[in-house]
Fold:
Amino acid sequence: MEHVQVVGTGMTPFGKFPGRSLKNLAGTAVAEALRDAGIGPDDVEIAFFANATAGLISGQEMIRGQVALREAGLLGIPLVNVENACASGSSAFCLAHMAVASGQYEVALAVGAEKLVHPDKARSFAALAAAVDLDRRDDLRALIYPDGDAAAGTGSLFMDVYAHAAREYMRRSGATAADFAAVTAKNHRHGALNPKAQYRNEVTEAQVLESRMISDPITLLMCSPIGDGAAALVLCSAERARRLGVPGVAVRATKVLSGSDQHELAPVRTARRAYDRAGLGPGDLDVVELHDAAAPAELQIYEELDLCPEGDGPGLLASGATALGGRIPVNPSGGLLSRGHPVGATGCAQLVELADQLRGRAGGRQVPGARVGLAENAGGFLGPDHAAASVTILSV
Structure:
């Protein structure tokens, strides 16, 4: 198996861009990644394009990548479309890694892009709500509304799911709404240092708690925003990276699993396999990007990744360990809460952040001496478990 390096990263700002197309966003991120790697489109041998919602937002189906990248100089090569809910971008990265690691290709491209903003917000929310088993949606509703009071729902099925998980977590761990507000405040402090974040404003914990209730205990500022954006990464063999003469970041492990009916959730199982493949453990990590689609999820994922013992997520946060300057900064990019969450682009954006951190070029949010980073990305729901989960470990 070939050793694989990330040698180029590119990313657009995340935000609401009604005047920019999916094609424009994807092309911008790809051009930046190719420049960073010191190569041109003709050097790319295979590309994987991730997008989750274009079919429901714009009606573009089946050949999304070919359309989005047709002006980027990439047509004529194998171009694979990847759709895997919020884990679409990280799944595209995993496939690009497999292509190079197999020895069949020397240079591969992973791209994630999303245009989630639409004049009719209901269309955006409906696209997101499609990431469940529609045939068993009543089962999911019965899980999150155990008293049968579906009328208590907010109209955002996903936030209701996250709120249900948050309430269960509060019972198990003693976490409070103030802890969730502290997650949002931390990630907004980080995002304020990221010029490509959707929200670059700091917020106080009081502001988070006082914002509009979405689904108890989750308030508006505890929710990741809807937005547009794209991110891309160039992967190549270690030998090709040596010839290019650019500083690369090693892919130590990248794993993608589906949810299941097993007792252990998909992120837990995926993390364990990634640690085993990399020959590393939680104590080796210097920086983490994780899927904080709602603020309570960050504390739960601390535990799923074994960053702390079960039930100690609030304690880890309160210790300052997961803030910039702490022992293991989490979401220095601002995370989904501040950087934004254009679904198909999120997984690639997390990996762009990690690669830039490990290459020492994250600016004011740089984690000093970072050498090992982990990204966790999950999406969709199959009952209590995520439909897809991804964990990737990079190092220098």
Observations:
- Residues 4-119+225-395 form a domain with the Peroxisomal Thiolase; Chain A, domain 1 fold (CATH 3.40.47.10).
- DSSP finds 15 helices and eleven strands in the chain.
